[in-house]
Structure formats: structure tokens, C-alpha cells
Amino acid sequence: MGIWSQAKALAERTPPERNRYVDFLRAVSIIFVVVGHWLIATVYYVDGKLTPGHLLESEPGTHWLTWLFQVMPIFFIVGGYSNGVSLESARRREIGYGEWLSARLNRLVSPLLVLIFAWAAIAVAMRLLGFSDGVIAFTSRSAMIPTWFLAIYIMIVLLAPVTYAAWRRYGFGSFWVLASVAVATDLLYFMADLHWLGWSNYFWVWLSVHQLGFAWRDNCLGGPGRLLAIGALAFATLWALTSLGPYPFAMVGSPDQGVSNVLPPKVTLLVLGLVQLGVLLSIEGPMRRALDGMRLWTATVLVNSMIMTVYLWHMTLMIAVIAVLYYAGGLGLGIEPGTSAWWFTRPLWVVALFALLLPFALALSGFERRSRAKDSAVPAAWRQLLGAALVSLGVAVLAMFGYRGGPLPGMDITAFAMVVVGAWLSGVISRQ
């Protein structure tokens, strides 16, 4: 049976109460992230030398595109919706926190481990082949750019039962408290130069956005008119923050040496999330009707069946393709990034990478559908919490510095060990 037929068979078994638009937004968002990364990371081959670059640095006129391609708020909104559904289901079935968390961690951490282990092996091989530590660190760090999202999302999942309970009791009050803390953190970041405190906005910003997913799930956001008003007001606020305030215009990456909207996250990402929420949910009705059609829904199911694999491996695939082209004499890499010829060839570049990524993703996608064996014991909640925290911290270090990188010797080995021990403690790696 072909992959389309398999996806169609799954699509036909979709429960009627499922909100298909949630899955559609998740799938489309992944495609935007992948395409955005493939466009932003530039390479230029001249006189036998390969020069990596960043499109936002070399072409400041492209910064407006980041308002379209920064879709991480959508992921957290969708995550809030999905976690709300999952927690309600667990409550009805009288499933405890430990069992609920075990299932979530298996789905999130299992595909992540494959990437972490693979790049550990690649780093060792590169070292044996004589590559410098700088090249190994840059390459592995670039490949693991997607992992930062999982590092923080795992922590958001750990807190989901608490934040959902806060939503059920306090409603939008729980959102405004978190949003207020995010705003206060930014104020202290800029006015008191407490830059270290800004890193806590990985929690306050994304927890706030995650609460919006609970509001969506409980149908508390109003109709299209109100949603469009929210989106318009948020857009005006975002424009003011970036034009009159201290925030940069680019919503992705760090195109200059000054302030970044993402490292650490700023309240601008929360406001951008409100823009996206207002616009995208205002068309939820017609989109859900469109998704009743089997063709569009089957395509959505197909993408979601390998979504984590596509997300985690798309940078690795691009790096592998660039390496092959480099050793082939720079084939296709001699066009200067940002020129009209370069933009003209981007559709071909993106289509070719997707064509190569699809079979690879299909081969590895089974890891993201991995579930805990029915007869296996559920690890104690404290072990899962500690294990998940170790995994998140280890992944964050590897995403920031890569293998063979970091300000201290052996940071990569320590981070790798944290991921392995954390996965073992949380039961993702079997203890039997």
C-alpha cells in the first residue's frame, strides 16, 4: 500500500469530533519553518571556498519576511489546544499525571534521541577525518537548530496540568498574569540591564501563548469579527514595538549584534502570536469545512504522520546536500545569495530538498509514533520530571554550542550524558 493510501485510510477513520484545523495548522507551520530555514541559511562557493551566511544579515530588506515565517507561536497555540484535549481525556479515563506524562514524553523525546545520537556519531567521524573543532561545532549546531523548540516545549508539557488547572479556574486571568510577567521581564531587561533575567521569558512568553491554546479549545475567543479585531490591535502593537520601541524588526534569528526577539524570547513573540491567532482563527469555520474534503485532509494526515521527523532532520539533510555539492566542485552553489538569479533558483532548491527529505522522513517517522509498551511500568512522576528536565537542559546546550563547542571543555559530552540519563530516568530508554 502506498503512502497516500495509508494516509487516506487513517484519514477515513478520523473521529467526527476531531478539530482537523488544529492538525492543518501544525502541518502548514512545519512547512513554513522548513522553507524558512532553507532560505535563511545561505552558502556561496567562490574560488574553491565555501562561505556560509545568513540571509537576514546580508539582505536587511528581507526582514519583513520573518513576520510570515516566524510561526513558533502557532506551534505553542496548537500545543495548548492539543494538551487541553489530552488532559481532559486523561481526566475522563482517570489516568494519572505519571501515565499521561509518560505517553507525551515518549512521543517527544524518542525522535529527538535519534538526532542527538546520530550527530554524536557524525561528530566523532568528522574528528577522525581531521575536521577542526570549529567546523564540527558550526555544522552540528546548525543541524540542531530545530531542537531548541523541543527543549522548551518539553518543559511546557511538564507544566501543562498546572497551567490547564489555572485556566479552568481563572480563565483569561491565567493568561494575563503570565503575559504581565513576560512584560515585566522585558522591562527589567531593557531598563535595568538584567539580561540574565531575560532568559526566563522562555517560560513566561511561551506559557502565555500556550494558554491561548486552552482558550481556543474551550471556544472562548469569540467570532471572526472579534478575532480580526484582536489580530489588528496586536499587529498595530507589534508595529509600534518594533518601530518606536527597542525591539528589532526581524522576528527570526539574530541578524545583528544587538537585541534579538528570540534569544532570549521577547514579548514581541507573544504579540505576534496574538496576530496569528486573530487572523488564522477568524477563518477556522471555512477551513474546517474545506478539511471535510478527503483530499486536503489526507494530505494533512500524511504530513502529520512524519511531522516531527521532517522538523528535526530538515537542517541535517540540507547540510548533507551542501557537503555533496561542495565536493562536487561547488555545483549549484556559485550563485551569490540575494541576487535575482539566486531568488529565481530558490523554488528549485526547496523542491529538490523536499524530494530528498520525504523518503528519509518516511524511514525514520516510526520513532515519533513510538509508544510505551502496554506491559511496561510507568516511571514515578518525580523520575520523569527530573529526566525530562535533564533532557531539555542537555538539548539546549547542544543546540547552543553543538558538539566540540562551548566555552568549557567537555560541555558536549556532559550535555550528551544529560540527555541519555534523562531519557533513561523518564523511561524513554527502557530500564529493563
Total helices: the number is 19
The largest β sheet comes out as:
2 strands, antiparallel
Order of helices and strands: HHEEHHHHHHHHHHHHHHHHH
How much helix is in the residues?
over 70%
Distance between the termini: 35 Å
Strand order of the largest sheet: 1-2
Shape: globular
Low-confidence stretches: none
Give the DSSP E fraction (strand runs of 2 or more residues).
under 5%
| Chain-averaged pLDDT | 92
Number of strands: 2
Whole-number radius of gyration?
22 Å
**Which secondary-structure class do the elements indicate?**
mainly alpha
The number of distinct structural domains comes to 1
State the gist of this model.
The protein has helices spanning 3-12, 20-40, 55-58, 66-69, 72-92, 97-128, 133-143, 147-170, 172-191, 195-198, 201-217, 224-243, 267-282, 284-290, 294-304, 307-327, 340-364, 381-401, 411-425; strands at 41-46, 49-54. The chain is an all-alpha fold and 432 residues long.
Question: Would you give an account of this structure?
Answer:
- With 432 residues, this protein is mainly alpha-helical.
- The protein has one domain.
- It has 19 helices and 2 strands.
- A hairpin with a 2-residue loop joins strand 1 and strand 2.
- Helix 16 crosses helix 17.
- The longest helix has 32 residues.
- The protein is globular.
